[in-house]
Design goal:
Layout (H helix, E strand, L loop, with lengths): L1 H6 L10 E4 L9 H6 L6 E4 L2 H13 L9 E3 L17 E6 L8 H14 L3 E6 L7 H6 L3 E4 L4 H10 L2 E4 L8 H8 L3 E5 L15 E3 L4 H17 L1 H18 L2 H13 L1
Parallel strand pairs: 1-2, 2-3, 4-5, 4-7, 5-6, 7-8, 8-9
Helix pairs in contact: 4-8, 7-9
């Protein structure tokens, strides 16, 4: 909120001033605001090391590198679903996220249509906000449009039946959809951006796409999904790795404790 940054220099110095950033991109339009307000912020929170590295670049260019000491990393957390269950033998792939340019859902649609032309025994879903105006396009690519899922129980049911969760973003922090999905055994396939590689190891608890060209991203996405179709035993093993990793790294208790310490400091 630019309004927050406009009033920040005028706030009582006794008030604790904290902001939070999930991710930055190349040539981020927020860079100027971030640099100008660095000296007025008491704590600036980011969710991963990659975002902190971007801030270091911004601060160095803006000659406020001393303010980097105020930056803290507090990773997001989720309630962990601990009950074990087996997924259906029918493979389901889901893209869960808003329709936005930086998320590039159209790349997912392209891959889905090509895979469906080769293998009908697979279901592709897309869920999130902003889908309504793209329904015709989504259906033409043989993808189920689930819309914006606001009920957490409905979202959890989607995670339970999803084998693979896909993101094709230009930039990310570390998406909540991966944290949540992995706790349900969903295997991420994603562009290797932002803080993704801080948690995901290719072929261990997910699959990383290292391409930047969009056509190559689609090719790699197809290749990795079709690998999962042909190697269900390997996919099941990676799914179990995802559950275990989420349980040991994403617990909400760590998140709560970090913010309690921050606010009480």
């Amino acid at each position: 909120s630019e309004y927050f940054y406009d009033i920040l220099p005028f706030l009582d110095k006794r008030l604790k001033k904290i902001d939070l950033f999930h991710a930055f991109s190349e040539d981020d339009e927020r860079e100027n605001s971030v640099v100008k307000t660095a000296k007025f912020i008491d704590f600036r929170i980011v969710i991963n090391q990659k975002a902190k590295e971007y801030l270091e670049i911004f601060y160095k260019k803006g000659e406020v590198l001393d303010e980097l000491q105020k930056v803290q990393i507090i990773q997001n957390g989720i309630p962990i679903f601990k009950q074990y269950f087996s997924k259906s033998t029918h493979l389901e792939v889901s893209f869960i996220g808003r329709w936005a340019d930086e998320k590039r859902p159209f790349l997912y649609l392209k891959a889905a249509k090509i895979i469906k032309s080769r293998n009908k025994n697979i279901t592709f879903n897309i869920a999130g906000s902003g889908l309504r105006s793209h329904i015709v396009e989504i259906k033409s690519h043989e993808v189920n449009c689930l819309g914006d899922i606001e009920n957490v129980l409905d979202l959890n049911e989607l995670y339970k039946k999803t084998h693979i969760v896909v993101l094709t973003s230009v930039y990310e922090g570390f998406p909540m959809v991966f944290m949540e999905g992995m706790s349900y055994g969903c295997v991420p396939i994603t562009t290797n951006v932002g803080g993704v590689s801080e948690h995901l190891k290719d072929g261990v608890n997910g699959f990383l796409i290292n391409e930047t060209d969009e056509d190559r991203i689609v090719e790699q996405l197809i290749k990795k999904i079709e690998f999962c179709i042909s190697n269900r035993t390997i996919l099941d093993g990676i799914s179990n790795n995802c559950r275990e990793y989420a349980g040991s790294h994403f617990a909400i208790e760590n998140f709560n404790h970090s913010y309690q310490n921050l606010i009480n400091s």
